[in-house]
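Let's see one such:

===
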Amino acid sequence: MNEIERHIQQTTDRLQCIKQHLISVNSFRNAARELLEWCMDKRAFQPHFEAGLVSCLTVVSKVAPQAGYDFDLGYRLLAVCAAHKEKFSANSADLLTSWSEELGLLLLLR
């Protein structure tokens, strides 16, 4: 395994770990902050990270509106990623748009 492949594998493994932490109300905030920080770097949106990133964002879209989770942080994370949706596949971009709209509507209704 060369250095690039190792980096991709390590990042993919870390995204899987973050996903597990996003599920728990006790670790959501730290995991979401780490993911948000990672998504501030345009390299986060490379094709080989898409599946792991979308997997994490799927969790965020489901749990952020629930009691005990940081809704605002979840919404911000989805919004940051949606701003880069042109770097995602069409299906993932559609999911990002849908999640952002759903959480945006919930934000307005609060």
Notes: The helical segments are 3-23, 28-39, 50-63, 71-82, 90-109. Residues 3-23 form the longest helix (21 residues). The mean pLDDT is 95.
